[in-house]
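Render this sequence as a predicted structure.
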Amino acid sequence: MKKLVLGFSLLLTATAANAISDNAKFVGVDKSLETSLCVTAVTKGFSAAYQEALTVSKTYAQTLHMNSCNGVSIKQFASPAINTVKTKVVKIVPADQSAESKLCVLAAQEGYKALLKKHNKALERIVCNGKEIKSFAKQRAGI
């Protein structure tokens, strides 16, 4: 069991990677001025949104920072850090060739319910990385 835990830990550490996508496309849900300013801010930056707001009025442009886009201030929304999509890639392999290790991998990849349909066994007693297989599969579903 210690080998299994160590194997998963090393594997998760060694194979975790972040991928950044620049292919995000932002579209407005309506034709309102606020939506237009949000789309401009996220695609061209806050300064461009400020210049667009100036065409409405100087006062509106000066209060632009109080607007929010998707629940975030327009300045933060325009920030490149918030608009970066990150994906975590994790590869899970069995620590050894035992049936339990292989079932743990299948549970992580396919989910507990799918595993239960394929294998009519008492899976509740299997422990993966110190957790009951059902909890382990649920935790890994978010990765």
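Summary. Strands lie at 17-21, 68-69, 72-73, 85-89, 127-128, 131-132. The helical segments are 2-15, 33-44, 46-54, 58-62, 74-78, 99-110, 112-118, 133-140.
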